[in-house]
Structure formats: structure tokens, C-alpha cells
């Protein structure tokens, strides 16, 4: 399952990231923030309009905002 389809509030573990589907600068930014295999994440909020962008993601002690397209490139499993 990809992160964009994962339920809000539940914890997940990243099992893979399709880096090739992301622009190089976007991939670098996500890697620098700690988005990578093995990281524990949780969706804490989704945007309210049509595309439900952005997605607020808890990653360790941080909350980061990512686009739904980025979340679609991140494969997760329930933690």
C-alpha cells in the first residue's frame, strides 16, 4: 500500500520509496528529512480541498508536509 492511501492517525513503516518517480531535488529533500526505508511515519492531517493536498506527516519528532504525489511514491506497511 502507498502512503497516500493509508489511514490517518495509524502508524506505518516505510518499506520502499520509488525514487525514480520523483524529481531529483524533491527526492533529495525527502531523503534529507529522513524519508527512507525503515522509518516510522503517521499521517496526522490531510488537506480539505479536492486533491487532499498537502498531507501532514509525523516522522520522528517532526511534522512535515508532503504532496500527495510524493506520498504515492512511498510504500508502507502497518506498524
UniProtKB/TrEMBL annotation:
Matching Gene3D superfamilies: 2.30.30.90
SMART domains linked to this entry: FeoA
Keywords, ordered alphabetically: Iron
Keyword hit for Hydrolase: no
InterPro entries linked to this entry: Fe-transptr_FeoA-like, FeoA, FeoA_core_dom, Transcriptional_repressor_C
Keyword Iron: yes
Residue span, Ferrous iron transporter FeoA-like domain: 1-78
Protein known as: Ferrous iron transport protein A
Species name: Qipengyuania xiapuensis
